């Protein structure tokens, strides 16, 4: 049980089963045996995973707010101005957008939510893709533009 606690503590910090196994000094497969054989392990593992995910999320929010400080170099040497090494702060716009989408999907999420079905055409009121292909095959593309509401007659 002590080894399992060590493993879960490490896993909640790293979200890496292999590394956690090495640190806890257990066989990598032992974790999977615990999940299979110990009825309380899956719930504790899920809690450790959620803690690790929250830690990563907190770090991502910190990076989005503060950015990453990098030393400015020129020809491989640090740039010095008035006796001080110059640093710049870089912000990851993709990380910021990802966090915005996650926290406010209605405002920042993808605007198109498409459901594909057997009669999907992509445009409301438009004929299905198969109908468009059939019409083109029979040379009726002009008629389709004019009579979008009429069914296509097969000339079989």
Radius of gyration: 29 Å
Low-pLDDT segments: none
Count of helical stretches: 8
- What is the percent of helical residues? 40-55%
Q: pLDDT average, as an integer?
A: 82
Number of strands: 6
Q: What's the number of structural domains?
A: 3
N- to C-terminal distance: 73 Å
Strand content: 5-15%
Structure explained in plain terms:
This protein is mainly alpha-helical and 156 residues long. It folds into 3 domains: 55 residues, no CATH class; 39 residues, no CATH class; 41 residues, no CATH class. The protein is built from 8 helices and 6 strands. The longest helix is centred in the middle third of the chain and has 26 residues. The protein is flat. The relative contact order is 0.07.
Keywords:
156 residues; 3 domains; two-stranded antiparallel sheet; 8 helices
Task: Put the structure in a nutshell.
With 156 residues, the chain is mainly α. It has helices at residues 2-14, 17-24, 30-37, 41-66, 93-103, 105-108, 129-137, 141-146, and strands spanning 68-71, 73-74, 77-78, 80-81, 84-85, 87-90.
């Amino acid at each position: 049980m002590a080894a399992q606690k060590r493993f879960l503590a490490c896993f909640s910090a790293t979200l890496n089963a292999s590394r956690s196994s090495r640190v806890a000094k257990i066989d990598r497969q032992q974790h999977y045996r615990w999940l299979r054989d110990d009825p309380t392990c899956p719930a504790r593992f899920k809690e450790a995973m959620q803690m690790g995910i929250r830690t990563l999320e907190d770090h991502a929010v910190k990076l989005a707010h503060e950015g990453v400080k990098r030393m400015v170099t020129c020809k491989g040497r640090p740039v010095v101005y008035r006796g001080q090494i110059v640093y710049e702060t870089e912000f990851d716009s993709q990380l910021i957008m990802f966090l915005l989408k996650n926290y406010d999907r209605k405002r920042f999420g993808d605007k198109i939510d498409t459901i594909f079905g057997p009669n999907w055409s992509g445009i409301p009121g438009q004929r299905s893709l198969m109908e468009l292909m059939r019409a083109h095959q029979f040379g009726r593309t002009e008629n389709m533009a004019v009579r979008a509401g009429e069914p296509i007659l097969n000339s079989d």
